[in-house]
């Protein structure tokens, strides 16, 4: 679990052996408060 001080939320960041799908990246960025 990762914590974003910007949003105050925790969110999972999966570890992948292959490329991550763009929707997964967008979801992570949204949860982190980046996008």
Automatic annotation (TrEMBL):
Keywords: Endonuclease, Hydrolase, Nuclease, RNA-binding, Stress response, Toxin-antitoxin system
InterPro entries registered for this protein in UniProt: HicA_mRNA_interferase, HicA_sf
GO terms of molecular function: endonuclease activity; hydrolase activity; mRNA binding
Pfam families for this protein: HicA_toxin
Keyword Nuclease: yes
Similarity section: Belongs to the HicA mRNA interferase family.
Protein's UniProt name: Type II toxin-antitoxin system HicA family toxin
Species of provenance: Candidatus Allocopromorpha excrementigallinarum
């Amino acid at each position: 679990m990762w914590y974003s001080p910007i949003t105050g939320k925790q969110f999972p960041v999966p570890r992948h052996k292959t490329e991550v799908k763009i929707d997964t990246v967008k979801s992570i960025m949204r949860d982190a408060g980046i996008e």
